Amino acid sequence: MIDLFSIVPIPLLEKVRWQEVAVEYDPYKFNSFPVNATRQVNRATRELHQALARATESGRIAQMPSVVTWQSVVDSTVGARGVVDTLYARLKGGGHRLVLFDVNRQQALNSVQRPGARQLIERLEQGVRGYALDVVTNAHAQTSQVSVHHFLPNGTQTVRETTVVWPPNLVSLGHVALPFPPDDAAYGLIPGSGRDGIPSIGSWLLRGENGAVTISLASLTRSRSNPFWPFIDEDINTLVAADPTRVHR
Q1: Half-sphere exposure of 108 (CA within 13 A, CB side)
Q2: pLDDT at 84 (0 to 100)
């Protein structure tokens, strides 16, 4: 069998090696994506699914260390339903915890929101789970202020009010945004974020006609930093402090 990716490339067919070719302006990730990377991701995902199935059937899944996941309830790349139904549905024990960041639930946005995100959260809140669940969502529909709803596997529920708010015009997070604080030099969404007088990519807000610039204006609307980063930062510090076996270097 001939491997089309190992033979000498034909110039006219060079683009078939790429799923997408785009302008490279991001300092930490490639915007272009090769077909070979797609194949490798697909293989790794299939193997992971099979490994999880084998561990579940043998009972070894019970030996898995506590898993904590921070996940946007909507994500065009890393689907929340896959995290919930493929991984967390197999986990048992209060040490496992899923933190879901809801979409912005302000009443003014109701008419343009998709119902799927709310359906997933309602299913998890009302169903039986073998893990703890945190939902970061609006305190109520008339405010941008958020609260954290905590659900234990035994059905106990608590609510923690916060002073953190949704920024204006931000409707959701995504996996790209979650690990970066809102003032990050490269991805911060706060105006003035950046370094050496160069605005951060996350604070760019360009408007115009398609073709006016070399990059897609639509690509700039995706959130690249997390206004709720303090919740994750606090979580990580708590987890590290609670592990007496960890060696700090």
Answers
A1: 7
A2: 94
User: b/e for 141-172, b at 16 or more Cβ within 10 A?
Assistant: eeebebbbbebebeeeeeeeeeebebeeeeeb
3-state secondary structure of 133: strand
> Mean of the pLDDT values across residues 207-213?
81
Q: Collapsing DSSP states into helix, strand and coil, what is residue 191?
A: coil
Give the span between the Cα atoms of 173 and 10, in whole angstroms: 41
Pair type for strands 68-72 and 97-101:
parallel
Nearest to 181 by CA among 196, 165, 202, 163: 202
pLDDT at 134 (0 to 100): 96
Listed in sequence order, the residues at least 6 apart from 75 whose beta carbon sits closer than 8 Å to its beta carbon are 174, 175
Q: What share of the chain is helix, strand, coil (3-state, %, to 5)?
A: 35, 15, 50
Indicate the residue type of 116: G
